[in-house]
Amino acid sequence: MGEALLEVRNLAKSFGALRATDGVDLEVHEGETLAIIGPNGAGKTTLISQLAGNLRSDAGRVRFAGEDVTALSAPRRARKGFARSFQITSVFPEFSTLENVALAVQAHAGHSLRFWRPAMSDPALIEPARQVLKEVGLETRAGVIAANLSHGEHRQLEVAMALATQPRLLLLDEPMAGMGIEESERMIALLASLKGRLTIILVEHDMDAVFRLADRISVLVYGRIIATDSPDKIKLNAEVRKAYLGEEA
Amino acid sequence: MKTRAILWGAFVLLLAALPPVALELGQPFYLDLVRRIMIFAIAAISLNLILGYGGMVSFGHAAYLGVGGYAVGILAFHGFDNGLLQWGAAIGGSALVALAIGAVSIRTSGVYFIMITLAFTQMLYYLGVSLEEYGGDDGMRLRTRSEFPLVDLKDPVTFYYVVLGLMLLSIFIVFKLVNSRFGMVLRAAKSNEARALAIGFSPYPYRLAAFVIAGAMGGLAGALLVNHTSYLTPDFMHWTRSGEIMFMVILGGMATHAGPVAGAFAFLLVEDMLSAWVPLAFVREHWQLFLGPLLVLSVLFFRRGLAGIFGKHDG
User: Is the pLDDT at B80 greater than 80, yes or no?
Assistant: First the structure.
């Protein structure tokens, strides 16, 4: 394999005495789907927030496409090709579904110091937004105010907003959280359709989804990565079973 | 949608028809009252841009009334009566002051933002008090109203229509702004800042730009106000004035186009009624005592403001 798209070295973050991220090394290659699993409180969301730039790291480096992005803020990382979804639904609730996605398109369409023309009738924003809504299966819900969408639709919208920024790296924080079986299936199918086209880091508790989607799996326990391997080998890894899978097996 | 267009049309017609009717009835006082209300409506419309749409709770919007007023008053004092120069200085000066205040305060949020904007405005207030040459604490008379080619502001009816026109223009400008790409960033950052950052928006420059535009419009209101009262005092910038403008926006309905106008009319009409028209002397003397509870009740009952009565938000 060539150079990794994302390369994380010795990343650390403490909250008081708690070491939420404790010397994490990661490499994710272009087109790969890496799942991060681990018990509750392992530091998965903290790690995603550090990668996305929402949380400043205490130590360590993050390189993206050969460039050191450690010091960059979340919006600047986003403009370089990072996109994230949040564990707890985070959309623009007062805006319509289409507007939510159009905003994500706009964020990557150069500066927004345009004061006069109505943005939401601008085909340069609306057309790509409709395209993405179609891709995630929300096209019939385009005009609905986001606050009125169902939980599953919110998760789809989050993915749509991430896609609309035309990212190179997708950071998904429990996209299946709180979903019913049917909604989960739809989400898994959607993510499967993105697989290979995009580089994805997926934090997820739904093991079924993880084993179906991931090329490799990293296991995070108490802020440390204790194993990174193919799904088949992770299933057999004794340490992993003890730390995590054992609870469910 | 249609009802709203009809309401706006009726409102504009009513305002346009007021001067001939008031003069016919021999009540020029109403002209004066409504003109004052419309000037405050402009201030409220500009505050709504940053407060309602931008989520920036500025407790110092009277600063721009003051800067605009002083720009006109000081130029007039030194013999420069040209309105274009005076109003240009009012708008430009307010924009610069807003740039300075905004550049510092927008880096903070929440209570800190409120306190910093208040503190800056208090500084300007005391600056006004200390300007002995321009009347200090007592203020000074404006020698003559701003002079424009073709338009004579000394004519109360002409002045009235100028204010009406500028108020409608302000509404239109804010309407265009909040629906532009610029406005979308502003509203998105208010709606969900973490999400706005995550999709790649850096809100700071947009918030600052909105703050400067709002300041400039506030400065225009200040220039109008000093022409209206023909008197300039530091009280233009008193913190209670900032509170009143903020109240108009909240009472009328934040992040709506009709809200700040409705709020300015409701607030100042009720104030005027309590302090002058009510037949009970006790109420007239202690009108603030009655205004307070009325305001509390109105906020409790009209959660989305007066504009909310006529339907949903119209962002």
Answer: yes
Using an 8 Å CB-CB cutoff, list chain A residues near B196: 92, 103, 107
B103: tokens are 């550049």
Q: In this structure, are residues A28 and A199 in contact, taking their beta carbons and an 8 Å threshold?
A: yes
Q: Do A119 and B315 touch (CB under 8 A)?
A: no
Interface of B with A (CB under 8 A): 176-177, 179-185, 187-188, 191-192, 194-202, 205-206, 209, 313, 315
Domain ranges for chain B, please list them: 32-238
Render pLDDT for A189-220 as a digit per residue (tens, 0 to 9).
999 999 989 999 999 988 889 999 999 999 99
pLDDT tens digits, one per residue of B28-38: 899 999 999 99
Q: In B, which residues are within 8 Å of A106 by CB distance?
A: 181, 184-185
State phi, psi for A214 to the nearest 5 degrees. -80, 140
Tell me the backbone φ, ψ of residue A178, rounded to 5 degrees.
75, 10
Under an 8 A CB cutoff, do B188 and A103 touch?
yes
Q: How far apart are CA B84 and CA B86, in angstroms?
A: 6
- State pLDDT tens for residues B10-59: 999 999 999 999 999 998 899 999 999 999 999 999 999 999 999 999 99
pLDDT digits (tens, 9 = 90+) for B218-229: 999 999 999 999
Q: Cα(A47)–Cα(A21) distance, rounded to whole angstroms? A: 7
Kindly give, in sequence order, each residue whose CB lies less than 8 Å from that of residue A186, ignoring residues fewer than 6 positions away. Answer: A137, A152, A156
- Minimal Cβ distance to B198: which of A84, A117, A119: A84
Q: What is the pLDDT of residue A249?
A: 41
A to B CB pairs, distance under 8 Å: 102
- Judged by CB atoms closer than 8 Å, whether chains meet at B179 and A119 is answered as yes
Give the residue from chain A lying closest to B179, CA to CA.
Answer: A118
Cα-Cα end-to-end distance for chain B: 12
Q: Do A106 and B206 touch (CB under 8 A)?
A: no
Q: Where are the domains of chain A?
A: 1-81+169-186+194-249, 91-166
> A29 vs A72, A76, A80, A215, B196, CA distance in Å?
21, 21, 16, 10, 27
Interval B267-281 mean pLDDT: 88
Q: Which residues in chain A are contacts of B183 at CB distance < 8 A?
A: 115, 119
Q: Domain A1-81+169-186+194-249 in CATH: superfamily? A: P-loop containing nucleotide triphosphate hydrolases (3.40.50.300)
Query: What residue has token string 């910038």?
Result: B237
For residue A149, what pLDDT is reported? 95
